[in-house]
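About this split. The held-out portion is used to measure sequence recovery: a designer receives only the structure tokens and must propose an amino acid at every position. Recovery is the fraction of positions where the proposal matches the reference. Here is one held-out target exactly as it appears in the evaluation file.
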């Protein structure tokens, strides 16, 4: 047992020394990426990108999969990876192959039974059985129980004299690790076989600093309503779609319930000043430093979600309180809404519901579609492509507005509904439409009305936390929208370098 008395601040992260992909590194076209018939034009990624390829790049990409063989192919693979239109396809490793050069760090406080379950899973898995494990007791009230569990499983115990929070506990483990990679596992997770090999394979890319698995609900014998809701709507579950982790995108962060990091990339680690959102902050700092982060849902860990109503609501509100500190540290990267001014204007006109305003919204959308079509004359059907992309932008903005009215900005929406009949009608319609849409998309097994009610409670608690944090920090940063200047976020010419 080692007593830990002081911790350093996280400091500034150093960018990767070399982002060149190695020979043999393979990439494959991501599902959802659209290519023109001649292969020269592609749309995909998040945020959406329009990419034009040279003839050489088209030949290299071929049927959608290629390996790095020289400098031009490495440059092309890197650019397409960063755009999110291809995914890495590292060599497969047998799930039972022992992992190497990795330390498992487990921050814990008074969860002896859960720690025992996690360590038993790690020691019974051939891939992780022999790995060094550091258990960081973050000021437990019953330290002897944790010490006994750690000793029984051959884990090294590090002890904080008093509670310092999960970020500080992880940093303690990080400082004592001596391996190239560190796997952080919260004490309430149970990794599935093969999880670590799948994540470690991502580090074949020298610019990858962090890889995260999918966090799914552990099965329970008799699931209640909240168990069934959390199966599809846990804030720890980032979904079934893999991809790069990029701020202001479909995957803007990954939770630290389980992540694997390159030790030299993360510096001193998490910011111990943050009790909430320290994982989001680390993701953003790594991205700002030039590192790449990957979400790999084929690697899975189970998690026992909170399903007691009081602790469930408190957790959601607690997550919301972290938004203000994150928005102040990373301006523009934690917006409640990210949309183009024209799409916001179109939605506002449609909400008025009058013939003239609806006609104006249609005209505005049509003009935008024409302008977008003119920017991609090499598409198979420019007019159709421009119309589809523009309508998708309007739909996305409308859905974000629904979420804002019922999540981040519900106090404002509720106040408006109290004094204006039209606002009241819109708010009720938004609350019902968003809940039913979420029920359909999530595949929830709950009755639609039950799912809708739980969704609204979820959003009310989170939004309340956002406002609490904003008042505490005296800022409106987490409540301000961010404007996108284009329907397609960035135009990229993916040209192999000479």
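Reference sequence for scoring:
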């Amino acid at each position: 047992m080692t007593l830990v008395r002081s911790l350093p601040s996280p400091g500034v992260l150093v960018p990767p020394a070399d982002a060149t992909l190695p020979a043999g590194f393979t990439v494959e076209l991501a599902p959802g990426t659209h290519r023109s018939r001649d292969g020269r034009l592609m749309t995909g990624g998040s945020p959406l990108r329009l990419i034009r390829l040279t003839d050489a790049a088209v030949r290299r990409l071929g049927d959608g999969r290629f390996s790095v063989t020289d400098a031009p192919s490495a440059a092309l693979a890197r650019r397409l990876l960063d755009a999110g239109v291809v995914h890495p396809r590292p060599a497969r490793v047998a799930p039972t192959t022992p992992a190497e050069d990795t330390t498992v760090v487990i921050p814990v406080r008074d969860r002896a039974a859960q720690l025992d379950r996690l360590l038993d899973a790690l020691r019974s898995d051939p891939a992780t059985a022999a790995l060094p494990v550091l258990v960081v007791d973050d000021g437990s009230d019953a330290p002897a129980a944790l010490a006994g569990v750690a000793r029984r499983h051959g884990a090294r115990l590090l002890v904080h004299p008093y509670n310092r929070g999960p970020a500080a506990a992880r940093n303690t483990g990080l400082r004592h690790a001596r391996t190239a990679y560190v796997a952080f596992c919260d004490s309430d997770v149970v990794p599935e076989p093969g999880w670590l090999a799948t994540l470690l394979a991502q580090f074949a890319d020298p610019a990858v600093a962090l890889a995260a698995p999918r966090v799914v609900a552990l099965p329970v014998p008799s699931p209640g309503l909240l168990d069934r809701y959390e199966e599809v709507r846990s804030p720890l579950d980032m979904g079934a779609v893999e991809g790069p982790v990029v701020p202001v995108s479909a995957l803007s962060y990954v939770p630290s319930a389980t992540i694997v990091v390159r030790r030299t990339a993360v510096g001193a680690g998490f910011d111990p000043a943050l009790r909430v959102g320290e994982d989001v902050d680390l993701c953003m700092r790594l991205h700002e430093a030039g590192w790449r982060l990957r979400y790999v849902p084929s690697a899975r860990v189970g998690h026992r979600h909170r399903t007691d109503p009081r602790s469930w609501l408190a957790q959601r509100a607690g997550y919301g309180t972290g938004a203000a500190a994150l928005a102040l540290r990373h301006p523009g990267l934690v917006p409640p809404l990210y949309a183009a001014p024209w799409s916001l204007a179109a939605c506002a006109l449609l909400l008025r519901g009058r013939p003239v305003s609806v006609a104006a919204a249609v005209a505005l959308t049509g003009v935008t579609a024409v302008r977008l079509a003119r920017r991609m004359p090499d598409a198979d059907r420019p007019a159709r492509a421009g119309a589809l992309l523009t309508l998708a932008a309007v739909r996305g903005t409308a859905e974000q507005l629904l979420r804002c009215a019922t999540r981040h900005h519900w106090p404002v929406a509720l106040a408006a509904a109290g004094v204006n009949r039209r606002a009241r009608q819109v708010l009720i319609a938004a609350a019902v439409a968003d809940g039913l849409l979420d029920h359909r998309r999530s595949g929830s097994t709950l009755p639609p009305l039950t799912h809708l009610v739980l969704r609204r409670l979820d959003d009310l608690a989170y939004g309340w936390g956002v406002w609490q944090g904003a008042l505490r920090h005296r800022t409106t940063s987490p409540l301000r929208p961010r404007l996108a200047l284009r329907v397609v976020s960035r135009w990229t010419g993916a040209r192999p370098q000479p």
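Annotator remark: The chain has three domains: 26-89, 102-307, 338-490.
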